Amino acid sequence: MTLQARYADVPVETKQRLFDEVKADLRFRDTLYGCYECGICVAACPSARFYDFSPRKIAQAAAREDLGIFYEQLNDDIWNCSQCFSCLRCPRGNNPGGLITIMREVAINNGLASARQALEGYGRVVYKIMSTGTQVSPDMLQPNAFPDWGPHVAEISENLLLWRRALPPETLHTTSTAWEVTDRTLTELYLIWHMTGVMDMIKEVDAGLHMILVDVMEELLEDAGYAAD
Ligand code: SF4
Ligand code: SF4
Question: CA 127, CA 218: separation in Å to the nearest integer?
Answer without folding.
Answer: 15
